[in-house]
């Protein structure tokens, strides 16, 4: 019964977070902002106001595929947000520019996250292979190596939290100070940003829970070997 509850949690929590962000986006993508600026215009204005003339704004395919690429110094917005002039488009565009501002200012958590990317990718790809072999073959040493690889990926997800929350705070500061949204639009804009942030919180929470479970399996295995 305990395992059923556990697996229900790690499956349902991310699904709930995804539903929340999609619901908030769907709702507020239908609410036009008072400035009537497209997401691309919002991004460009904030970038220029912060002296980031070298950062480009591009349209990209997909829905909610928006991101900032620090390698090419590019803010990429999904078509709906690039052309849309809704509160959701403004919020998401400003959030991605928040990452560009972090990059410009050498925000410590962003730098740390970038440094962890190669290790986190390796951990994500290799950890479960080692973990499954370690568990089924009852090889505690191999299981431990897999756990260590997985821990690197978990650290990456945890470090992502302050990066995302900070980018959202920067986004709110920018859209308010530049008059992109009115005071009565702040609440709705923050709802979009908070819903998006919850997906990262859910992912990090599930990753930590899974890491703890594997550590308990490892400790149980080593006790049986003694």
TrEMBL record:
GO MF annotations, alphabetized: peptidase activity
Keywords: Hydrolase, Membrane, Protease, Transmembrane, Transmembrane helix
PANTHER family in UniProt: MEMBRANE PROTEASE YUGP-RELATED (PTHR36434:SF1)
One GO process term, biological-process aspect: proteolysis
Lineage: Bacteria, Bacillati, Bacillota, Bacilli, Bacillales
Natural source organism: Peribacillus saganii
Membrane-spanning ranges: 6-25, 115-136, 142-163, 192-218
Name by which UniProt lists this protein: Zn-dependent protease
Top-rank lineage group of the source organism: Bacteria
